[in-house]
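ESCALATION

Customer reports they have been waiting on this structure for their group meeting. Please prioritize. Original submission:
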Amino acid sequence: MLLSALLAATEQSVSTPPATGGDPDIGRVVHDSRIVTTGDLFCCITGHNSDGHAYAPEAVEAGAVVVLAERTLDIAVPVLVVPSVRRMMPLFASQISGVPSQQLDVIGVTGTNGKTSVVHLLAAILEHAGRWPATIGTLTGSLTTPEAPDLQAQLASWAGEGRSEVIMEVSSHALDQHRVDGTRFSAVAFTNLSRDHLDHHHTMESYAAAKERLFSPSFTDQAVVLVDSEAGRRVADRALEAGLTVVEVSVANIDRTVQLNQVAFSWRGLDVQVPVGGDFTVANSVLAAELALLAGVEPTVIVDGLAGVAPIPGRFEPVEVEGGAIVIVDYAHSPDSLTQLLASARGVSGGGRVISVFGCGGERDAGKRPEMGRAAHEGADLVVVTSDNPRGDPPEGVIADILTGMAEPPAHAIVDRRQAIRTALALARSGDVVVVSGKGHETAQMFGGESRPFDDRIVVREEAAALAHNRGSSAGNDS
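Update from on-call: job pushed to the front of the queue and completed.
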């Protein structure tokens, strides 16, 4: 695409300084100088740790024919100077990729908790209906929502394959950083809002505002909103004021049966059974069902699709162990999600104790750590505090922050996550529920810049088997 055509398509009147090849043909939009090839438009993103402007000469040497920047640069290709590279980059990326969201039904899901589950459930429904959806989210990449050039390129690839829908998690970071600008959504959904990511957003007001960006005519015409909270009610009201068609969802008064591996409830006069545990699965399922309705799927097909859904990795995922205890692995890593998780565990405990194993991530919102400690103390009978992903923070310091929110010391505070899981399993009796939370589907722990293999589900099985073996050996010796 010629630079002049790109500027015309995005209605930009950016003047370009005289340079060799004043109207070059652009093949891609990129933001990482390490992957630049001939014909690319390189975007100088200013981040927390680096400034993309410093890499512009390297990008030009690698073949970039245009540079998008926030200040003038002395380089031998056209430099487009704009107030915000982040705001302009997704618009350019969308155009260069052929505006792929106009060729697909893109469905976006945002909220603090439940995004992954709603995407998973909706994909199962659409697949059962004979569609060929693709998904984007926590389970598919290193970023919940990819950077704009990667997102638009992926959408274009799926459009070329003939995909019908793309269902994507839309994170608050992505909305704040304009990663999904230039994307048209056929529908969007809101799950809930509670404290998280304040290391980035700083205030709950800013966090909420980022989420609410998605519910505007610039992105979509229709929305499904869970209105059982003040935040949800506000999102629905603002979406209506903006002219969107809004489907309001409330599950507060829905009768439901919640078991370890299943929830059952009624939706639009139909009996629904979903083979996923956790009380929150009801709200997630109804949101997915309503989005499927907007996508043109018949109600009975929706119910059948939900009935056949596969387990959601790391979301209220039971792990079978010997000894009679129930073990649940879950991704919950915010105060509200931990509260809801432990309440759901209590609901399936049958009178047994709830034992919570959790930590908090390093280099992330430190203010939520005491709140996580409070949630665990109030929701569990025994608490084992441990490490999550320490990253560059000393794990002992993270644990110390957690403990300040607890009314009394936990049963154990153990830095080594494997040892913490082993300790919790050793404490558990038949009928108890051990909840290992914070990492869910993740298969590694982050220590500084190092990634070490660690999957809670695998570790639970290994440690439970070792305990069973040791108990068996002890019984044999006693005899």
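Sent to customer with the following note: The CA atoms of residues 69 and 81 lie 5 Å apart.
Escalation resolved.
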